[in-house]
């Protein structure tokens, strides 16, 4: 296949762009997890925050990715570094599945288990870290899994603003009308999404309460 020959001939650049892609996805998913899990816990314990938090995350999902990059470009600190802008945009897109699954996981803990914990004298923070989160961790990881797959796909759009990643091949191939170059970006991105899905899925099954 001609695109495989193209990848072999340009393997150095393919590896470099793949590393950039992994960096964008990894950092944005980490930030989304650090923000989304506490927000999900907050919403689960204070239901009145459900609509503003989940509503805001839903609104972000409806904004087209290129439009969001465009909205963020004028911000001085972000506009100077396109990688920062891309990471922020990917973080915002990854929030919804993590917040929603954290909320679902915490709310899905059996009330009888919670009452048993309180009967043993556990404080609210002990209940959270010793009961709720361990029982909800597989559901939370399911949200992280979805967020990673979404981020791998959206990170290709980051090349439109010069943030690097495998999207560079895709946009270059579109400009040249060359399917080999398009596939050189699209196929590795699809493989990354598949591997991320399998890896996080394996971790999710390992941590599922028995």
Task: Give the key terms.
mainly alpha, about 210 residues, 10 helices, about 0% strand
Number of strands: 0
Count of runs of 4 or more consecutive helical residues: 10
Global outline: elongated
**In what range is the share of β-strand residues?**
under 5%
Low-confidence stretches: none
Oligomer: single chain
Helicity range of the residues?
A: over 70%
Cα(first) to Cα(last) distance is 47 Å
* Alpha-beta content class: mainly alpha
Main sheet characteristics = none
Describe what you observe in this structure.
This protein is an all-alpha fold. 82% of the residues lie in helices and 0% in strands. It contains 10 helices and no strands. Helix 2 packs across helix 6 (82-107), helix 2 (11-45) packs antiparallel against helix 8 (124-154) and helix 2 packs across helix 10 (179-206). The longest helix has 35 residues, at 11-45. The chain is elongated, with a radius of gyration of 20 Å. The model has no long low-confidence stretch (mean pLDDT 87).
């Amino acid at each position: 296949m001609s695109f495989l020959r193209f990848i072999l001939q340009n393997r150095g650049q393919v590896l470099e762009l793949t590393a950039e892609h992994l960096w964008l996805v990894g950092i944005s998913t980490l930030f989304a997890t650090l923000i989304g899990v506490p927000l999900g816990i907050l919403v689960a314990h204070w239901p009145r925050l459900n609509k503003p938090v989940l509503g805001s995350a839903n609104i972000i999902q409806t904004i087209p990715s290129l439009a969001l990059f465009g909205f963020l470009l004028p911000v001085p600190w972000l506009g100077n570094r396109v990688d920062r802008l891309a990471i922020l945009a990917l973080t915002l897109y990854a929030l919804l599945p993590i917040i929603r699954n954290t909320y679902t996981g915490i709310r899905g803990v059996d009330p009888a288990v919670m009452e048993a914990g309180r009967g043993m004298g556990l404080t609210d923070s002990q209940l959270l870290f010793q009961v709720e989160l361990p029982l909800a961790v597989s559901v939370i990881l399911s949200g992280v899994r979805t967020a990673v797959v979404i981020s791998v796909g959206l990170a290709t759009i980051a090349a439109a603003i010069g943030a690097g990643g495998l999207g560079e091949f895709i946009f270059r191939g579109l400009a040249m009308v060359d399917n080999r170059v398009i596939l050189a970006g699209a196929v590795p991105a699809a493989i990354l999404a598949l591997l991320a899905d399998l890896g996080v899925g394996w971790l999710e099954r390992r941590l599922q309460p028995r």
